[in-house]
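[step 3/7] fold_predict: job queued, chain A
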Amino acid sequence: MKATLDHIGIAVKDLDQALAFYRDALGLEVEAPEDVESQRVRAHFIPVGESALELLEATAPDSAIARYIDKRGPGVHHITLRVEDIHAAVEHLKARGVRLVDQEPRPGAEGALVAFIHPSAAHGVLVELKEPARPRPNLAARRMAWGDLELVSVSDGLFRLDGGAMFGVVPRPLWETRLPVDDRNRVLLSMRPLVVEAEWGRMIVDCGAGDKMDAKQLDMYGFDRTRHLDHALADAGLSAESIDVALATHLHFDHFGGATRRDGAALTPRFPRARYAIRAAEWEDATHPHERNRASYLQDDFVPLKEAGVVAFYEGDQSIEPGVRVVRTGGHTGQHQIVFVESGGRTAVFTADLIPTTAHVQNAWIMGYDLFPMDTLAFKKRFIREAIDREYLIFFEHDPFVAAGYIRERDGRRHVEQVL
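[step 4/7] structure written:
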């Protein structure tokens, strides 16, 4: 049974006095309170590093917290250990004769499942086990007006990559609470293209992995094709035939594998009416791979496009269509780029693998996949500062739960205010 410290519960008699210390004197940020009706208590969480303090305020005179304060006075009430599977943890303890308060898990704060271990089994300490609520992936097509444009976030489904590779030098205890791993150390990720609709037509930025993968790739990367790009486009009233431009941020399989499809023995363009806008220097790198990047550049994803005569190569940073421009970041690949979408005085940015998930909004949280990580860091520091100050709406291509949001910063701490 694997367990980590989630929080320490503190029973308080006078909430205003408690807040005067924790919030006002210590300067800690107190989250909005939550009433837990089953326990007749109001919980106030205070994040402290990777754990938290939980101020517990009784909402009824016969609640467990009220009785505890009457008997012992305010103070530490319990410690909470976070587990991945609370039902398995409870059965594990039962098999070892550990005395439990709860024989079965029950609902707790923040939508979690909890179960208490009796203090007599833990040397006088009340121990709570907690399995956090698991957010459900957000795969719905979402449309929003953006000045004179329409932006549509769509999904090509889910896949998994090694957690250590996704977070590079960042220690696992710091990132696994954001994106938990499976039994093969893989984290769940989305493939989330962006459609831009304008008077000049419809553009799709990146297009997911598509369906050309073999059985080995399906297993290795944990592809979930239950919902994919065709479903998302249909939900938004679109189709592959309605796309006029397909723009690549780079040519890795999880970003542009969906640019081609199998038609019998042939490989054909996925979007039959579209021109495919590809940076010429990225094409050069992708068609001349080396040992470090060969697994990500799969030739069947893009070479058939040139053979079909549908590629529009371009050089350098520029506008691809009115309101849509590309800026090279380097770092992840030598020619990796992000896409600015500007209209009506507002700016949205599709950050691709510069900031693949909301967990990567910290400057040093850089993927191990990046070929030139110091280039990533240099660009990322400048860009995120600009994005915060100018309130850019960021589209996160690989975050399974958040499609878009604003990066906010308070007292040096960053978080994402979700919009989609």
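[step 5/7] annotate
The chain has two domains: 3-131, 142-418.
Residues 3-131 form a domain with the 2,3-Dihydroxybiphenyl 1,2-Dioxygenase; domain 1 fold (CATH 3.10.180.10).
exit 0
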